[in-house]
Design brief:
By secondary structure, the protein is an alpha/beta fold. The protein folds into four domains: 208 residues, TIM Barrel; 80 residues, Elongation Factor Tu (Ef-tu), domain 3; 96 residues, no CATH class; 239 residues, no CATH class. The protein has 19 helices and 36 strands. The strands form seven sheets. The chain has an eight-stranded parallel β-barrel, surrounded by six helices. An eight-stranded mixed β-barrel has the order 24-25-26-27-28-29-30-36. Helix 4 links the parallel strand 4 and strand 5. Helix 1 packs parallel to helix 9, helix 5 packs parallel to helix 6 and helix 9 crosses helix 11.
Length: 747
Amino acid sequence: MENLLPAGNREALERAVAAGADAVYLGYSLFSARSGAGNFDAEQMREAIRFAHLYHVRVHVTVNTLIKDSEMEAALQVVGMLADLGADAVLIQDLGLLRMVRLMYPDLPVHASTQMTIHNLTGVRLMRDMGVRRVVLAREMPLSEIEKCCRQGVEIETFVHGAQCVCVSGQCLFSSAIGERSGNRGRCAQPCRLPYQLCGQRGAWLSPRDNCLRDDLDTLMRIGVDSVKTEGRLKRGEYVAVVGRSYRGALESLKAGRFRKADAAEREALCQIFQRGGFMRGYSQGCEDAGIVDPVHVSHIGVELGKVERARAGMAEVLCTKTLSNGDQLQFARTRAEVIYAGPEVPCGGMAKVRLRPGIRVSNGESVRRLTSEVQLQEARAMPLPRLALDASLTAIPGRPLSLTLSDGKTHVTVEGSVTEAASGAPLTHETAYRSLSRMGDTPFSLRSLSITGENAFVPVSVLNQLRREACERIADAIAEAFRLPRGRTFPPDSADVTGSIDTPLYVKRCAETLGTVTDGIPVWDPKDFALDVLERQVSCLNGRVFLMLPRYCEEDTLQALRSFVQRHADRLLGVIAGNVGQIYLDWGVTLAAGPGIPVMNRRTVQFLMERGCAFCVASRELSREETLFLAQGLPVAVPCYGQFPVMLLKVCPARVQLGLSQGHADCRMCDRKTPDSLWGKALQDRMNASWPLQRVHLPEGCMVRLLDARCLDIRRETRADHLTGWFGEASDTAPVYAGHWKRPVE
C-alpha cells in the first residue's frame, strides 16, 4: 500500500519525504479545496515535483474545487501546466472539468476526489469507465462497502488518519449557507466545529474526532486498498513527519509479513502531535454516533502531563507524570489557559514550577495537558532526508579528458573536464579521489563505491570538486526526469455547447410524505423512509406519475434494491432523480435526471450529464443569479427557487450523540416511535439564535440525517417569478421547489 502524505507547503513536503512517503498530495495556488494551505505557485510547483521525483516520491495535485463557467479555461490551463511539469496525477471533483481533462490529456492520470461522493461499487465502476485511474472513497463507508470497491480495475484510496468531515463527502453547503464561504470552493469556515444548542444543551454536536487507523492497515491491505491517506494540508510539517513515520513503520512491517501494531510510545507520539478528544477508528471500523463526534473537544488536547499540586499568584507547582522540557506548551484543563514552560527539564515524578501570565488563575488538583512537546517537534524537524547512494567511475588517463560517471543503478550521467596531465610527483590515488568525491555536502547523495581507470595522473583536488558538483547537479535532474511518466497531449475538441430542442417548462415540487393532488407541473416524491415495504405502500397510493428522488448516499445493496423497485413500478413513475453521480451509471428503465446531490456549476457538467442520459439537472445553489442564468441558457437546468434545502448530510445522529450512544445505529427506532429523546422535531440553534432543522432519512443500513437551512430560500425576493405563483403553498410549507426547462420524453 502507498503511504500518501499531505504537503501544504515546501516544509511539509520535505518532512513527508523524510518520513517515508511513497506519494504526496498538494495544491496549486488556484482551484485547490484547501485554499488556506500554503499551496504552490507555478515555479514552486516545478521545484516541488523535481524534489519529490528525485526521491522517487509521486506528486498528486489537487484541482478539486467546483469550477464555474468563467473559470473553466483557466482550470484547463492549470491542468495542462501540471501535465507539462510532470505531476503524477490530478485530483478532480468537478464533472465538467473531468470530462474535458480526459479529452485533452488522455495520458494524465486522474483521481476522483473524495468530494465526488463515490461511496459504492456502482460509483467506482462509473469512474473506471470514464478513465479515472484512482477513486478516493467517501469517508463514511463501512469496510464491507470498501471491499466491494476494490479490485475493479481502479486504484482505491482511503483516509486513515487526521480530521474527519462530519458531512458526507462532497455534500456540504453549511459553510456557504452560514457565512458565504464555500467548502466546495476551498474556503470552508468549519462551522461544524462551532457549539450549538440541542434541546437546551450546548455542545459541538457536529465536531468529529480525528481518525487513527494505524493498527488497522493489515485489514485494509487484505481487502485490497491501494493507498492510505493522511489528512492534513493545513497541518505543520512536524505533524506530517510524526504521522508519516508511524505509518511508514507499519507498512514496512506489513511488507515483511509480520505486522506490528503501535506500542505505547508510538500511540502517545500520535496523540501528542494532534488529536481531538481521543482518536476514533472511523466508519470503516464500525464507529458510530458518539464514537464519531466529541461535543466537548473541538481542538487539539495533547496528552495528560500532570496535576497542579499548589497554586498561588503567578505560579503553579505541577506534579509531572511525564517528562517536561523547556519550550513545551501547556494547557490547564479547567480554565483552558495556555502557557509555554520555561525552565529546566523535569523528569516524571518531579515537581515543575510553571510561571503564569498576569490574569491566569489555576486551582489545586487541576489537570495539566501538554499541547506541544518541544523535544518531539525538534526531532521531527531534524528527521533527515534519505541519502541516495551513487556509484562513481573516474577516468583519469594522461592525455585524455578527465571524466566522471555517476549512477544510481538505473540512471547515469557522465561529465568531462580538461585534459589530464601526467603526474610529475605523487599521482592521484584511490584514497585521495574518494575523499574528494564523497564530500557531497548538502546534495541528497552519498558515495557508495568508486572505481578509477588510469594511472600516473595528476588531478588537482579543486578539479575533482568541480567535476563532482557538476555531476551531482546533472544526475539529480536525470533521476527526477526519469521518474516522470511519459505524457502525450491533445487539444480541446469542438467547444460548441450542447444544443437541442429544449421546449417544455419544468416546475418541480418535492412533496411531503403524503402526496396531495398537484394540478400543475411535475411532483417529485422525496421519501424520508427507503425501506422497501414502506415504499411499496406509498407507491400504491400515488395518483399520478412522479419523479422519485433517490438518496444522496446509500450502500450498494440498497441501490440495487431501489433500482429493482423502480423497474417494477415504472408505470407509476415518470422518472428518477439521481442523488449522486454513481447512480447515473445504472439503467433505471425510466427517465433519468441529476439532482442537487450532483454539483452542477458549469455547462460542461451539464453536457456530461446529458451525454449520460440525464433529461435535466439541478444547478448548484452556490451560483449567483447571473451565473445561474448563463448556465441555464438553452440547457435543461432546474434551479432551486423556494424552500428549506439541506446544507449537510450526516451519517451521525446528533440525538444519539447527545445520549452518548456509540453502537446500534442501524437498529435504532427512536424516530419511528417519536420518543422524546429522538431526532423528531429537533433543530440545532446557533449563536445567532438561528434554528437549523434536523430531518431523518431512513435507509435499510441505518438512518442518514439532513441538516436543513435555517432560512427559507425564495427567489421571488430577487427576481420576477410570476409563473411560480401558487406553487409555494402555505407559509409553513417549506418543501423545496425547483424551476427550469427540460425536454419531455415522447410518450
